[in-house]
Amino acid sequence: MDTQEGTLLFEPSKTQVEQANITSYRTWLQEYKHIQTKDYYHLWKWSVEDLDTFWESIWEYFNIQSHQPYQTVRSGNQIIGTKWFPEASLNYTEHVFRNKTLTSPAIIHTSENRELQEISWEKLYQDTAALQKTLEKQGIEKGDRVACYAPNIYETVVAFLATASLGAIWSSASPDFGTQSVMERFQQIEPKAMITVDGYTYNGKKFNRLDVVKELQSALPSLKTTITIPYLNKQADFGDCIQPISWDIATAHQEKLEMSYTPVAFNDPLWILYSSGTTGKPKPIVHSQGGILLEHLKALHLHLDLSPGSRFFWFTTTGWMMWNFLVGGLLTGSTIILYDGSPAYPDKQVLWRLAERTKMNVFGTSASFITACMNDNVSPKSEFDLSSLRNISSTGSPLSPEGFRWCYTHVKNDIWVASASGGTDVCTAFLLGCPIQPVYAGEIQCAGLGAKIESFDEDGNSITNEIGELVLTAPFPSMPIYFWNDDSGLRMYHSYFDTFPGVWCHGDYIKLTNRNTAIIYGRSDATINRGGIRIGTSEIYRVTDYVTAVEDSLMVDLPKGNGDSITPLFIVMKVGEALSETIKQEINQQLRTHCSPRHVPTHIYEVKELPKTLNGKKVEIPVKKILMGQDAEAVINRGSLINPNSLDYFIELAKNI
Fold first, then answer.
1. 408-431 pLDDT, tens per residue?
2. One domain for residues 275 and 151
3. What are phi and psi of 345, to 5 degrees?
4. Can you give the residue ranges of the AMP-dependent synthetase/ligase domain (predicted)?
5. How many CB atoms lie within 10 A of CB 632?
6. Which among 284, 255, 254, 257 has a CA at the least distance from the CA of 269?
7. DSSP-derived 3-state class of residue 264
8. Going by fewer Cβ within 10 Å, which terminus of the chain is more open, N or C?
9. Which of 518, 534, 564 is where one domain is finished?
10. In 3D, which of 165, 343, 122, 331 has the Cα closest to residue 264?
11. Whether residue 287 sits in one domain with residue 149
C-alpha cells in the first residue's frame, strides 16, 4: 500500500510523555540548572547553541565517575581538534558495572547452535574480572590493541569489557568477513592479543575458520597471545595459534574476584572501528572512552528511553558499529539481547519469536529487514505475544513510509517506530528517535541532542524543506579522535572536511522539514540527476519495492558528454520470477507515477545479485565508476564485499554499455 510521506502514524500518550526519561532530564534541568524548555525542539536548540553547558549537564545528570576532575568542558571552538573534558580520567567498564544488580539479567543470548540463556550481572562481572587478570598476565596494558575475531556472542562482550577495563584498545571483525578483509583491518593496528573462535554457523550451515585464523596470525607478527573460544566445535584444535589459552582457563576463578579499572584520559582510545573499505584499505576510526561514554548514555537513555531492566536488542554482527551501540545498553543498566545467526533461519519468524521469548522492549533492526518482512507478508502480531515490545528502531538505510506503516499494521498499532541515521564515523546516530515526539511516515523524529545538524546547499547555505548535504556544524564528543596511523590528520580531514571547510560533511542527502523532522534520501554522491532534477536512490528503491516480483534493485546515473545521462536499473528478481516486458512496464509506470517521468530508467537489467559490503549495504559508486570505464581493481576493494564475484557482471557490461 502506498503511504504518503509525512503521514501522522503515532503520537505518544500523556502518560508516555510523563514517564519518558527525557522528561525527567528536562525536569532536572529546570530544577538544578534553571533551564526551561517548552518542547523537544527548544531543548535541542539550547543543546547545540550552548554546547558546554549541555554536555556538562550530561556529565552531571549521569554522574560520570572521573578519577581526576575536569577543569574545562572543551578546549578550542573549532570542530576539528576540539578536546572534551581534557583534564578528566575515567574508565568505560567501570561505568558498566556500577549497574550490577540481582533484579535483572545483564545479557540474554542465543544463536543457531546455542539455546537461550540468561547471564546474571554477577557472572558477567566475575568472567570479565577473570579475563582481565589473564590479559594482564599476558602483558596487555593501557594502549595495547586487542583484536577479536568472533561473532555476536556472550564471550565477545566479556572480552571487550575486560579489554576496556585495562585501558587497552578494542577492535573486532566478524568471522563471516573474508580473510583479506580482516587482515587489512588488523594489520594496520598491530594487535598484541587476539581473541578468536574456530568457526560459526549461519543459515544452518557450519563454517570452520581455523585455517583463516592460522593465516591471520601468520600475518600479525605483533601478536603475543591468543584467547580461544571453541564455538563451532567444543573439541576444536587451536594448536597452530600463538600462545593459545582456552576460554575456560582464561575465565576460570576459584573465588570471587574484584575488578580493577585503569583510568585513561577522556580523549584516549576506547576502540578502533573501520570504514567499509570499498575503495582501499578500510579507514581505522578511533573513538575515545569519554566521548563514547557520554554519547551512548545520552542516546540510549534519553532518545531510546532505556532504563535499568529494559530489554534491548539489535540484530547485528561484531563487524558493524551497531554491536558497539548494543553493548552500550549495559551503561544504562539494561539487559542486552544477543543473537548470532541468520534472520531467516530456521524461518523468517526467528527474530519475532525471540522478541516474544525474551519479552523484548526495544527491537533494533535494519530497514532492509523490515522491507523483507513487508514483502514476504509476515505479520508478527498475529503469531506472537509482543505485549512487552514498545519500540522498533531501524537503521542501515532509509526506512520507507510503507515500512513505517507495516510496523503499525502488522506488529503493533501503538508501537513507537524510530528510524535513525548516523554511522561508523561517530558510532551513534545524528538523527534518531524521541519518545515524546510524534511519528510521521518516512521521517526521522529529530536531530540528536548536542548534534548541530544542518542541511547545506552547494554553496554552503543552510536550507530547510529542501534536499541538501547533511552536515555537522559544531563539535561532537563521539567524532573520531583520529584515524590510526594518520599522524598528519590529512586522511581524516579529506574524509569529512574537504567539501565545506571547517564543517563535517557526512555524505548523505537530507531534508530537514518545517516540523524539525528529517528525511534521508541516500548517499549524496549516488544521487540520480536527470534534467536538473535530483532524486535520492532511496526514493527509487522505495518505488521498486512496490513491484511484488522484485527482490532488490540498484540504480546509477552515468553522465554523457551532452549534459544528459544514462540511468540503468539493475533488478534482482524473487525466487521463481523472471524479468519480463510486463514487469519492466510495471516498474517504469511506478517510477513515472511516484517519482517523475525523468526518473524512468533508460535500461533495466536482471542480475543474480547486487554487490554489497560486508555489512550488507549496496555498493553504488564503485558500480557507477566501473560502468563509466574505470578499472574495477582501482575503484573497489573486492575484499570489502560479501559477494565479490557479483562485480563480474558489471565489468562485462561496461564493455558494451
1. 999 999 999 999 999 999 999 999
2. yes
3. -130, 135
4. 105-475
5. 16
6. 284
7. strand
8. N
9. 518
10. 165
11. yes
Q: What is the pLDDT of residue 560?
A: 74
Distance, CA of 439 to CA of 266 (rounded, Å): 36
What does the alpha-carbon distance between residue 44 and residue 54 come to, in Å, rounded to a whole number? 10
The answer to whether position 120 is within a domain reads yes
φ, ψ at 40 (rounded to 5°)? -65, -45
Cell of 255: 573465588
Do 483 and 491 contact (CB within 8 A), yes or no?
yes
Nearest in space to 313 (alpha carbons), one of 350, 354, 344, 343: 354
> Is residue 537 located within the same domain as residue 507?
no
User: What is the identity of the amino acid at 523?
Assistant: R
Residue 144 or 526, more confident: 144
Residue type, 92: Y
- Number of domains within the chain: 2
Helices (H), 223-262: 247-250
C-alpha cell at 300: 540510549
User: pLDDT tens, 179-228?
Assistant: 888 998 999 999 999 999 999 999 999 999 999 999 999 999 999 999 99
Q: Are residues 542 and 503 in the same domain?
A: no
- Cα atoms in the Cβ-side hemisphere of radius 13 Å centred on 504: 22
Q: Which residue has the cell 574484584?
A: 258
535 falls in which pLDDT band (50, 70, 90)? confident
Residues 453 and 553 in one domain: no
Q: Answer yes or no: is 126 within a domain.
A: yes
Q: Are 567 and 558 in contact (CB under 8 A)?
A: yes
What is the CATH number for 533?
3.30.300.30
Cell numbers representing residue 443 in the block: 521521517
Q: Quick one: what percent of the chain has pLDDT higher than 90?
A: 80
Q: How large is the C-alpha radius of gyration of the chain? A: 24
Torsional class of 333: left (φ above 0), alpha (ψ -120 to 50), beta (otherwise): left
Domain assignment present for 60: no
Q: Both ends of the chain: CA-CA distance in Å? A: 35
Domain boundary among 518, 545, 572: 518
Position 518: which residue type?
A
Residue 356 in domain: yes
Angle at 213 between CA 207 and CA 219, to 5 degrees: 145
Domain at 401, CATH number: 3.40.50.12780
> Which residue type sits at 530?
R
| Residues listed for the chain | 657
Decide if 543 contacts 550 (C-beta within 8 A): no
Name the residue among 431, 448, 462, 404 with its Cα closest to residue 40.
448
Q: Which amino acid is at 286?
A: V
Cβ(627)–Cβ(644) below 8 Å: no
Residues 346 and 416 in one domain: yes
**Does the pLDDT value for residue 278 go beyond 70?**
no
CB 427 within 8 A of CB 287: yes
Domain that holds residue 513: 89-518
